[in-house]
Amino acid sequence: MSSPSPQPDPLAFEKPWARSAAGANTLDPESPRSSPRVVPTIYERTTASALAHQAINLGQGFPDTEGPDWLLELAAQSITDPSSGPRNQYAPGMGLSELRASISSAQRRRQGLDLHPETQVMVTTGATEGISATILAFAQPGSEVLTFEPHYDSYGACVALAGARMVGVPLRGPEFRPDVDALEAAITERTSMILLNTPHNPTGTVFSTEELGRIVELAKKHDLRIMCDEVYEHLVLSDAALPHRSILTVEGAEQVAVAVGSAGKSFSVTGWKVGWVTGGAELISQIRGVKQFLSFSSGPAFQWAVAQGLEDDRGFFARNTAELEAGRDLLREGLHDLGLAPNAAEAGYFVLGDVSGLTSLSAVDFCRILAEEVGVAAIPVSALTIQHTAQPMDELQRLVRFAFCKDHTTITEALRRMREHLPAALAAHPAHERASEPAARR
Ligand SMILES: Cc1ncc(COP(=O)(O)O)c(C=O)c1O
């Protein structure tokens, strides 16, 4: 079995660009260590490979439908109708006041939070900028940053850019629940931050209030900062065992934690890049110190439309999760029949398949065969791990991430291709050995 493209320790590099790329597993493994080359993100590489092989793209997590028409019209109107306000010039650095007010009122309705719109809500250029600004604000050089693995790739890039070291605590299947004892055991005197993601990409795990509470206690005890990425807050499916609870609902969390949200994920407008960071006024003002020199501000017309969408979503969130759930069920059923033991996938856009019931090959090899010979693109979960510390045979190296935020015809065709071509394509690989016991997780 070949392991994922090994990536060097990011801190072995002097230049920030090389650290950032190694931290996000985007250094070309074929390039010499002395003159490394950067490759695009795993998502862009998967999309490019899907195009090159005319494969169906279940790799990149974007919906193949547009956001609701009324929301698109609000943004268009905001750009072209001067009477609706100066929507084509700089927005305030903290974001349009209309959007800050509606983020605050949405968090009050949904989570019972009381966030002051002027001091406790900051609009960012996508959740991505909120994540970057928060990590760069709190992860001092030489410190350690803890996260559960697998994790969203931008965390690793920013931690490395800050000159800090990422330390992973694996989420183990089939439940993928956070092991808070293991997290605690990983804390050292160098730890500066904990990065959380609930609902979690790619496992779909929704963290419980108890788990969040214990983590906040740890942060208080050790004087750590928490960045809790909650971009999938509106995408919890109806059969999830737990509702989404923001980290900020834990008593006293605002002293140590901020939450990050995304209009792109919430309204299926991922290209708009409107996100936000919420939390205690002091932490928000510290993060602002970084954020205002990243983008300063962006997309006032999009911000204006999102402000109205959050005030009244016109039933979109419920319709969207019902559609996602139907796609999830279709994909899970098909992956189960193929022997890929799908996880429960209770939230977000993704379902995980475990290749070990089908083949001895790694998920990296599996995904290459899948794209090139079967015509379906997916992402090996190892691309979302800290590769310079990864164990080649670890469970995380056998998992594949498939996106279900796609049209049903697309999912059905992907499953048909897999049913018809996958067994022969795997059998033709010299290193393939069939597993003796098919995985039967459901
Ligand atoms: C866990 C997670 N956080 C953040 C983001 C980025 O969000 P945005 O597009 O709002 O920058 C994504 C996008 O895929 C994600 O999956």
Automatic annotation (TrEMBL):
Give the record's keywords alphabetically. Aminotransferase, Pyridoxal phosphate, Transferase
* Domain Aminotransferase class I/classII large, chain residue ranges per copy: 55-417
Give the top-rank taxon of the lineage listed in the UniProt record for this protein. Answer: Bacteria
Q: What is its EC number?
A: 2.6.1.17
Q: Name one GO molecular function term.
A: succinyldiaminopimelate transaminase activity
Name the record gives this protein:
N-succinyldiaminopimelate aminotransferase
Residue segments, region Disordered? 1-37
- Cofactors: pyridoxal 5'-phosphate
- Give the matching InterPro entries: Aminotransferase_I/II_large, Kynurenine-oxoglutarate_AT, PyrdxlP-dep_Trfase, PyrdxlP-dep_Trfase_major, PyrdxlP-dep_Trfase_small
